[in-house]
Write a structure and sequence with these properties.
Helix content: over 70%
Number of helices: 17
Organism: Acidaminococcus fermentans
Number of domains: 4
InterPro entries: TPR-like_helical_dom_sf
CATH architecture of the largest domain: Alpha Horseshoe
Protein name: Tetratricopeptide repeat protein
Order of helices and strands: HHHHHEHEHHHHHHHHHHH
Number of strands: 2
CATH topology of the largest domain: Serine Threonine Protein Phosphatase 5, Tetratricopeptide repeat
Shape: globular
Radius of gyration: 25 Å
């Protein structure tokens, strides 16, 4: 990256301190290096300098324009969902098309040698991505929730029975946000419909690894139950559905347990902790939330608390609280310096 550093240094050295002149100069640099192999990196550097040189009223105008664009984006996703539910598929596609075009082709969001863009729904997803995916580039948050764009597109394709296209759309959604529980849940539903059980099991293990809310963890166990039903492992399926009920009340799980009890003559008594532990070990899935996820959330809470960012600290504590008793939660807070 010595060449990039040399170009950036040259651009900086030619700045005059006169805002009007420097704005024109930077715009010229962006045009000059348009066909350069490092044009994305150079354009991003120039854009950052341009923003700093803008008068305050221009910055506010830019912020207002972005806010309007963001609201429009979310409104179009919601409208596309309503149109899909009403089976007006052509209008739904028409609404999504320009946003898909922007996500896939806009130079603003394309990765370069230093930066990659992701679309996280909340801070914990970014933490999980950094921990479990170990990105080699700097990660920047995209200004639009592109993972939701592809979730809605996947739902549209699924509503029309296009499993192959739905799978492709949801895979794109997971590229934007690999830690998204809603996108992964929809993807798992497609894999199940396709009877791609090998991929289903692999993706569900990833979901177990990263689940940080009780409802998402419960869904992992229900998915494991579905996989074991396919394998005709009736007792294993029973354990999976029983474990799911520890984290979310579910008519689906109750119905499956009732069916297993009636058709397979399985014992309806609650499983012992030893039985569930042995089952989890056999299936290579966690017995409850992944301890690493809780550790990461605790670390986030501690760091924010030390920095005086109590609202952010409470966000991370709120992720841990549903999994611990009140006594254990108080002991944890003491260990974190509260």
């Amino acid at each position: 990256m010595e060449q990039l550093e040399s170009i950036v240094k040259s651009i900086r050295e030619n700045l005059t301190g006169n805002s009007q002149k420097d704005i024109k100069y930077l715009q010229g640099c962006m045009e000059l290096y348009r066909d350069h192999p490092l044009h994305r990196e150079i354009a991003r550097f120039c854009s950052q300098l341009l923003y700093k040189l803008m008068p305050e009223e221009s910055r506010q105008h830019f912020a207002d324009m972005f806010s309007q664009a963001f609201d429009k984006f979310r409104a179009h996703l919601e409208e596309a969902r309503k149109l899909t539910a009403a089976r007006d598929f052509d209008k739904a596609r028409e609404l999504l098309a320009p946003h898909i075009q922007e996500a896939e082709h806009s130079a603003l969001f394309q990765p370069d040698s230093e930066v990659e863009f992701r679309s996280f729904a909340e801070p914990m997803e970014m933490v999980l991505f950094q921990q479990f995916y170990q990105p080699k580039k700097n990660v920047q948050q995209a200004p639009f929730p592109f993972h939701l764009l592809y979730l809605v597109q996947g739902e549209l394709e699924l509503a029309q029975g296009n499993l192959k296209n739905a799978r492709k759309a949801l895979e794109k959604g997971l590229r934007w946000d690999p830690a998204s529980a809603p996108v992964r849940a929809a993807y798992l539903a497609v894999l199940k419909d396709e009877a791609d059980w090998e991929s289903f099991g692999r993706v569900n293990r990833e979901a177990f690894r990263e689940a940080f809310r009780p409802a998402d963890l419960a869904r992992c166990y229900r998915n494991q139950g579905a996989l074991l039903l396919h394998k005709e492992d009736w007792q294993g399926a029973r354990y999976a559905y029983l474990m799911s009920l520890n984290f979310q009340d579910s008519e689906e799980a109750k119905k499956q347990l009732q069916t297993l009890a009636e058709n397979q003559k399985l014992d309806g008594k609650p499983a012992t902790r030893e039985e569930l532990a042995a089952f989890a070990q056999k299936e290579a899935i966690p017995l409850g939330p992944n301890p690493e996820v809780l550790r990461l959330a605790a670390g986030g809470a501690q760091a924010c608390h030390k920095a005086g960012r109590e609202k952010e600290a409470e966000y991370y504590l709120g992720l841990i609280r549903p999994f611990l008793t009140e006594k254990d939660m108080e002991e944890l807070k003491k260990k974190l310096g509260y």
